[in-house]
Structure formats: structure tokens, C-alpha cells
Amino acid sequence: WNVLLSFSGLVALIQLLFLPFFPESPPYLLLQKGDKAGCLKAMKQLWGEGNYHTEFDDMMKEKAITKGTKIMNVLEVLKEPSVYPQLSTMFLLLLSLQLCGLNIFRTANLQESIIPYVSLGVAISELTSIIFCSSIIDRFGRRILLWGGYLLMALILVLLETSLLLSDQFFWMRYCSVIIIFLFIIAYGIGP
């Protein structure tokens, strides 16, 4: 467990260190921010020197098409019948996640009788992070959410490892481990 948790934290740390050196997504810069110069600069930085007028024109056409389109909030999306297949797929994935994570909770020495409730809490944490992320992604952009998410995940993994190590000495640390796992899932869902 210790090696597996450390490996996830190491990967998150590496991604966190390299993220500031990557440019924003060209479509995000053009469509969301309206930054034409930044979009062209990001294209050159991502794809090298070249003529990207065709791609830029395609994005401009997309911008013109979506100009009159209203950006919907979470409740409006849930009321839209055309997204029901995608929402049902996400819902099934969340339900299937009920079966994972049981070993983590056993490692934390939780009673078998409360593990299903903790798994339900995991699913609720994921659902919360999905709703929260979809509400703030347009405001902050992916880069900030990725960076903040990876930073939070790295810190939370340190706390989780500490709480798992101390769970044999302090009974209440078992429950702290569960709360920390919920926080990790929320940080992952908001960021990466």
C-alpha cells in the first residue's frame, strides 16, 4: 500500500511540476477567453512553427456557431433530454465504483459493517466533484483546476499515508483516513 500510494503521489508531483510550462489549450484561449494572439502563440508552442490558418479558421467558425449558444448550468444540463444517454453512462460508472476501494477501507481497519456506507460516501464525493467542477471549469480554466487538483492530491496523499500509519495507535485516525479519501476523490474530480 505504501508503495502504491507513494507512486500516485510521485506521478501527481511530476505533473504538477511540469504543468506551468505547458500552454493553455488553443480552443480554450480563442473560444472562452477571446484571445486570438494567445491562441496562435499556443498553437506555435504546441505544434511548432508552421501555418495554422486552417485550424484557426475552423476555430473561428466554431466560435461564430457557438456565439448565440447559451452556456447552461448544471441544472439546465440535467433537464436536457439529449444528454440523458451520457448522464446515464456516468451514473452507471459511479454505481460500479461502489465495488472498488474496499481494500483501502480494510487497511484502515474499519468495521466490515460500515464499509458499504463508506463506499456510498465515495460515490457521493465523486458526484459532488463532478457537479462542482462542471460549475467552475469555465470560470477558472483547465490549467488552474489541474494545477490545484494535483497540488491538493499530493498534500492529501501525504495526510492519508500518515493517517494509515497512525491508525493502529489511534482509533479515531481510521475515520480520518476515510475523510481524507473523500477529500482525495473530490480533489481528483475537480482537477485531473
From TrEMBL:
<protein>
    <submittedName>
        <fullName>GTR9 protein</fullName>
    </submittedName>
</protein>
<feature type="domain" description="Major facilitator superfamily (MFS) profile">
    <location>
        <begin position="1"/>
        <end position="192"/>
    </location>
</feature>
<feature type="transmembrane region" description="Helical">
    <location>
        <begin position="172"/>
        <end position="191"/>
    </location>
</feature>
<keyword id="KW-0732">Signal</keyword>
<feature type="transmembrane region" description="Helical">
    <location>
        <begin position="143"/>
        <end position="160"/>
    </location>
</feature>
<feature type="transmembrane region" description="Helical">
    <location>
        <begin position="117"/>
        <end position="137"/>
    </location>
</feature>
<dbReference type="InterPro" id="IPR036259">
    <property type="entry name" value="MFS_trans_sf"/>
</dbReference>
<keyword id="KW-0812">Transmembrane</keyword>
<dbReference type="InterPro" id="IPR020846">
    <property type="entry name" value="MFS_dom"/>
</dbReference>
<dbReference type="Pfam" id="PF00083">
    <property type="entry name" value="Sugar_tr"/>
</dbReference>
<dbReference type="InterPro" id="IPR005828">
    <property type="entry name" value="MFS_sugar_transport-like"/>
</dbReference>
<keyword id="KW-1133">Transmembrane helix</keyword>
<dbReference type="GO" id="GO:0055056">
    <property type="term" value="F:D-glucose transmembrane transporter activity"/>
</dbReference>
<dbReference type="GO" id="GO:0070837">
    <property type="term" value="P:dehydroascorbic acid transport"/>
</dbReference>
<keyword id="KW-0472">Membrane</keyword>
<dbReference type="InterPro" id="IPR045263">
    <property type="entry name" value="GLUT"/>
</dbReference>
<feature type="signal peptide">
    <location>
        <begin position="1"/>
        <end position="16"/>
    </location>
</feature>
<dbReference type="GO" id="GO:0046323">
    <property type="term" value="P:D-glucose import"/>
</dbReference>
<dbReference type="GO" id="GO:0005886">
    <property type="term" value="C:plasma membrane"/>
</dbReference>
